[in-house]
Structure to design on (140 residues):
């Protein structure tokens, strides 16, 4: 099980990079009427969204192998809260994009992915603190 706690910080950067770049490109493309940037951003958002699930599973399994969580419990709780909020926001965004084909649906979608991007940054901050401040997944 400790394997999952060590591998999670290694693989989480791929969906994070896809989602952050996707949010930036898609919002930029929408604001500047740049269809290429918007399409590239949408691809990154959707691909990053699907890549979240294996990373979330690995992180969840890795959490069970952690010992002495008392010293970093607040950071772990915040990391989990933002991680699940991120997934929830992006699920909502994908549903809005696929099923709400109205002009205000597009605005809602862009707002949701912007909030999702902010949630990713907070998730990453707390995850980084767990790894670097508390050496949660550091080798023995």
């Amino acid at each position: 099980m400790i394997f999952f706690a060590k591998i999670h910080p290694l693989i989480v950067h791929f969906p994070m990079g896809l989602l952050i770049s996707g949010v930036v490109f898609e919002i930029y493309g929408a604001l500047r009427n740049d269809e290429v940037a918007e399409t590239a951003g949408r691809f990154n958002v959707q691909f990053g969204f699907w890549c979240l699930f294996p990373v979330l599973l690995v992180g969840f399994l890795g959490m069970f192998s952690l010992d002495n969580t008392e010293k970093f419990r607040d950071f772990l709780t915040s990391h989990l809260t933002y991680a699940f909020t991120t997934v929830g926001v992006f699920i909502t965004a994908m549903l809005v994009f696929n099923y709400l084909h109205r002009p205000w649906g597009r605005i809602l979608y862009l707002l949701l992915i912007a909030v999702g991007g902010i949630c990713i940054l907070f998730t990453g901050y707390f995850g980084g603190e767990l790894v670097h401040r508390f050496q949660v997944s550091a080798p023995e």
User: Anything to note?
Assistant: The radius of gyration is 16 Å. Helices lie at 2-11, 13-32, 35-63, 73-99, 103-132. The chain has five helices and no strands.
